[in-house]
Amino acid sequence: MGSLILCYSQKASQPYELAGIHRKVYTLEELGYYLNEYLYMVDEGILNEGLCSWIFEELGMEALAGRLFRICRSCGSPEQFVMLILKSIPLYTEKELEKVASVLEKLKNQNETERKKFKADSLADDGQLEEAMLVYMEILKDIREKEETKKEFEGRVYACMGALYGKQFLYEQAAAMYEKAYEVWKEESLLAPYLYCCRKYMDKQAYETLIKGKEAYGKIEEELKKRLQDEKMKLQPAGPSLLEDLKERYRAGEMFDKQEKVC
User: Fold this and answer.
1) What is the fold, at CATH topology level, of the domain defined by 110-235?
2) What is this structure's pTM?
3) Which of 32, 196, 197, 222 is 20 to 30 Å apart from 165, CA to CA?
């Protein structure tokens, strides 16, 4: 069941359409909601007097509109603009506002491709795996067109795609992504998830052939075996607790000398 968001501000007779996400909003609460959901799209474009005028004319919020106009005309930052709107809505706690400010600060110096990755990561964290995968694929397309992109960034994108495939138990596809990530980034920590996924989809002979003669793989394989064994032990039914064990022994008379045993 969805949650209910109360609107305290006036409802506009004419909606405002947010560029980029193509959403029409009728209240300040709706505006705040979409700004919060699409923080990765906050850039200089949000600083437009058309939005200020809509808040003034349609919502009748003269004081807020005036402050927003001043930010626009004094070359203020998009972060200031967004935070002022969110602070004007009596729905966000101080903790939530601090989180938004932290995200905006993080995004401030990122380029468009990096912002897209933030979007994909956010979608993945929310469980929207297919949507996240589409954005990661879009990022890889951007990377191919911009050869100056750092290999580490490209490797991280492939690794994220590997994690998404892994969450869906598509281990062969996941292994291919981790392998590609290592190929472009050369980050040793990628080998463990790569081998884990290979272990999951390959038959025993193919897997043994893969790791044979590779010292680094051998070490990781030993760690994987130990980890898998530990996980297996955790999944086994726990033995009886000490108290239950004592009760059983008491009922069987094992806790008493034969001469002291009572019925």
Assistant:
1) 1.25.40
2) 0.67
3) 222
